[in-house]
């Protein structure tokens, strides 16, 4: 990764700066995603549910998919089931016995959203060194995994 100069005297320390920078990036990138989803006529919740199934390989046992949705979207299992059933009812997901998978319309919608999102973000990332992007992605994945571990531990301590 390219070397970043130290924060000027009086600037936020790196630990404080990362929260601010990630928060600002999330807010702005979410606005771009909201535009893409509006053009596709899809809610953020439905999009995230489709993304979670993709993260599980495009198909999963219904109980595993619902548990994943519940954890990632911070909803109870009942709401996760309602979400999955709604996607199935609108033709985006299909059930093969206990397996949930993308219906053709769901796969097409995901591809259309991915293509539109790529068009929106390509100019943002194109000038950035690919090695820097890889380090950033790796770092954000690690931070996400650590935060999930902390939140799970806290939830277990409360239960």
Strand content: 5-15%
Number of helices: 6
Give the H and E element order: HHEHHEEHH
Please bin the fraction of helical residues: over 70%
Head-to-tail CA distance between termini: 42 Å
Mean pLDDT: 90
Q: Write down the Rg.
A: 19 Å
Here the CATH topology of the domain at 38-117 equals: Arc Repressor Mutant, subunit A
What is the CATH superfamily classification of the domain at 38-117?
Winged helix-like DNA-binding domain superfamily/Winged helix DNA-binding domain
Low-confidence stretches: none
How is the biggest beta sheet arranged? 3 strands, antiparallel
Short synopsis of the structure:
The protein is built from 6 helices and 3 strands. The chain is mainly α.
Task: Please tell me about this protein's structure.
- The protein has a three-stranded antiparallel sheet with strand order 1-3-2.
- Helix 1 packs across helix 5 (104-125), helix 2 packs across helix 3 and helix 3 crosses helix 4 (77-89).
- A hairpin with a 2-residue loop joins strand 2 and strand 3 (99-102).
- The protein has a domain at 38-117: Winged helix-like DNA-binding domain superfamily/Winged helix DNA-binding domain (Arc Repressor Mutant, subunit A, Orthogonal Bundle), CATH 1.10.10.10.
- The protein contains six helices and three strands; from the N terminus they run H-H-E-H-H-E-E-H-H.
- It is globular.
- Helix content is 72%, strand content 7%.
- The protein is mainly alpha-helical and 159 residues long.
